[in-house]
Amino acid sequence: MPQENDSATSTDRTDSHRRASFTFFSNYLLGSHDPIRPYVLLRGLLLLLAFDCWIELVPHAGRYGAGGFNVAHFEWLDAVAPLPTPALYIGVQCLCGLIALGMACTRPHRALMALLAGLYTYGWTMSMLDSYQHHYLLSLVLLCGIFFPMTPAEQVLAARSSVSNAAAARQTEAHETRASFAVLGLTFSIVYVFAAIHKLEPQWWQGDALMRLGRSSEAVMALEQWWLSAGFDRTQLWRLLGKATVFGQLLIASGYAAAPLLHRTESLNRTGGAGRIWLKLMFGFKLMFGAAAILFHAGTELLDLNIGWFSYYMMLCAASYFFPASMLSWIASTCTVPARFIAHKIAERSQPHKPDDSFEITIFAILVAIVSAALGASIDLPGAFTAGLLVAGTLIGVVMLTLFTRKLARRAAMAWIAGSALSMAFMWIALTQTTVRFDFYRFVGGDHRRRGEPHAALAAYIKANRYAPEEDNRVRQEQEMRALVRGTHPPR
Fold first, then answer.
1. CA 136, CA 74: separation in Å to the nearest integer?
2. What is the pLDDT confidence band of residue 321, given thresholds at 50, 70 and 90?
3. How does DSSP assign 189-224, residue by residue?
4. DSSP 292-327
5. 149 near 35, Cβ under 8 Å?
6. Confidence band (pLDDT; 50, 70, 90) for 157?
7. Which of 41, 70, 82, 212 has CA 20 to 30 A from 280's CA?
8. Which pTM does this prediction carry?
9. Residue 249's pLDDT is what?
């Protein structure tokens, strides 16, 4: 009998430990967080992604498929996917931006988020020419974003107006939407840990690598001169910065790992279940983690590294996870005033007592479709016109769903049409009012020039000079290609 009692006691202890472990992980992954955090992160991510695709990625499209050669990131992709071309790459990036900005201006949808994640991932996996490591991470962020709450701004802001509304919003939030935010934080934590481990190599730890990178930055050189003028040694500065980089990344990693517990404290605060001293302590931790992430990535930008918009993405993530929820709420409330005003007007027009507005919806959609196709053609980049036609075709499909099948509410249809119009307009601005077209055609011209193809290089340089800014052009290269085409000596 004593042995049976001991066995039963041991089993009870094991079950108790299992229940405690399950409770911890349940609270960690499925614990409550303020709905404003995933809202700001998702909308900010979509907004950044759209302009990143258009401004940062499109100019490099001319290299894709050059010479009929390509190596994808995965061997199986070479076997099943077509050879990348500038038109294909630009078309994919334009569509990614249009989908992202359309959802940012209206309301995200899980199916569209999945489509965006697939298109964006295909955009960088189609060729090893895209060597930005953070594009892997952005694909994971978009994958987690599929399971984020798709709540519109007015509901998120209303949920924070009182404790009862906030509690109701958290209760109705599905478990997968809670877990996705925590899982994404863990993903960020893992990324920072591995980045810190990589920098334990002597060149980073002693500051040599950082010193070489900082030579191209005027701000970093000014910091070095100030350090030397204070009577300190140059080597000490770079060793200090090298070690601070490692410890800073480990600090940020610990912040993202602890984020679900910090967010749970916010929920207790709104329901009155946490002490004042504990709340102040947790607020201090969030402030420390957020400041570390913002300063780290701001310093990275000062180094003038060729890493695209990665720092801005990570500063957005840091703000979403660590900034006070009240500050995020104020930012969201201020930035969404125009969108909420338009949504309110659309809702008024969609009331049951209002007259049938099918004719208005049809005319609006047709006009936006025509303008989208025209804007795509006027951009004068391969693949942009195709993207405009796809937008036009989508709008026609929206009208048919609304008018003939009644599967799409008129309010949603008007929102889709308005979002498509705004997205197309902003894409046109991003591609025509910046140096995107100039950069694309000068890169294409330079590639043909290096491969001994003067006719193609001349055509590209002519277009590059058409869109060249006043302080920069490729007139000399154009004259050189003209001379080669005519068979004369190029001017020097």
1. 13
2. very high
3. HHHHHHHHHHTTSHHHHTTHHHHHHHTT-HHHHHHH
4. HHHHHHHHHHHTT-S-TTHHHHHHHHHHHHHS-HHH
5. yes
6. confident
7. 41
8. 0.86
9. 94
